[in-house]
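Work Package 4 report. The design task specified in the project plan requires that, given a folded chain encoded as structure tokens, an amino acid be chosen for each position. We show below one input record used in the internal validation round.
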């Protein structure tokens, strides 16, 4: 079955459900501190595929890849920089195998960890890393490149442009925001939701959004601000399962599937066309969200 472009489907008014957390899921499967999550795409592919399959079974329409830290810069910490193409292609292939032909695969691209402001890397170096990662994800079967969890607008713009230059994929760009003392929302670098969305769209993003950092309640005004700044541009939201706290050295995310499901329709009403989860969310959270937004 030929998949339509995600934007085309969203323009019909259909709300799509994305998947949930990958990092916390990998930890539950035994990912050790200091071990590369993305490296599992090569060393433990069955476990990676099983995570994607669990979200498919939960009802997700869009499945991400285990490649958030898949840039050569991030993989260098684990001695895997020279295997970046293989890691990302495998990540996309594993999610595609689980997703089948009637769901979309989103190739996850996270920040490099290098600060342009501090001249830790040049724009050309970051762009090349992003182009290589996006091309490998597309080769593995990704339908879209999801440039996600960015706080630096300039780095996000480089990633969006690189994905557009190196693939024919749709490009999603999301940022992570925190609430300020004044009650507004900004990235760690001081960028507002409106500024972030406008910059991403100007760079070529087809879909914008927010993820991580914020809980569902905070994401409602963030989505509304993006919608006002970029009318007609689809918006994706991946929310944490609440703000974590530590117990016996373990991060606990308190938001239940039922609580997130109750808030999901508010995000749709504010303008979100894709709703899913980030840190701490599980297949149970995604199943509850899917039921809520499809039955609204």
């Amino acid at each position: 079955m030929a998949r339509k472009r995600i934007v085309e489907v969203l323009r019909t008014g259909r709300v799509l459900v994305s998947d949930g957390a990958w990092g916390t899921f990998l930890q539950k499967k035994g990912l050790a501190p200091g071990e590369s999550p993305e490296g599992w795409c090569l060393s433990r592919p069955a476990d990676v595929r099983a995570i994607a399959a669990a979200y498919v079974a939960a009802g997700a329409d869009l499945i991400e890849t285990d490649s958030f830290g898949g840039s050569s810069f991030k993989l260098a910490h684990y001695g895997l920089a020279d295997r970046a193409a293989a890691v990302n292609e495998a990540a996309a292939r594993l999610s595609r195998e689980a997703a089948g032909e009637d769901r979309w695969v989103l190739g996850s691209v996270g920040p490099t960890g290098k600060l342009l402001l501090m001249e830790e890397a040049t724009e050309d170096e970051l762009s090349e890393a992003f182009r290589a990662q996006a091309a490998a994800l597309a080769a593995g079967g990704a339908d879209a490149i999801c440039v996600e969890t960015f706080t630096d607008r300039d780095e996000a713009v480089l990633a969006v442009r690189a994905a557009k230059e190196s693939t024919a994929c749709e490009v999603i760009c999301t940022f992570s925001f925190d609430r300020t003392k004044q009650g507004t929302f900004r990235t760690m670098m001081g960028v507002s939701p409106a500024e972030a969305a406008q910059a991403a769209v100007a760079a070529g993003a087809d879909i914008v959004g927010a993820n991580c950092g914020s809980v569902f309640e905070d994401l409602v005004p963030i989505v509304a601000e993006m919608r006002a700044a970029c009318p007609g541009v689809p918006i994706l939201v991946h929310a944490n399962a609440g703000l974590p706290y530590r117990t016996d050295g373990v991060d606990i995310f308190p938001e239940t599937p039922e609580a997130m499901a109750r808030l999901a329709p508010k995000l749709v009403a504010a303008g979100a066309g894709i709703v899913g989860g980030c840190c701490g969310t599980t297949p149970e959270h995604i199943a509850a969200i899917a039921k809520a937004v499809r039955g609204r």
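DSSP finds twelve helices and twelve strands in the chain. Validation will be extended to a larger panel in the next phase.
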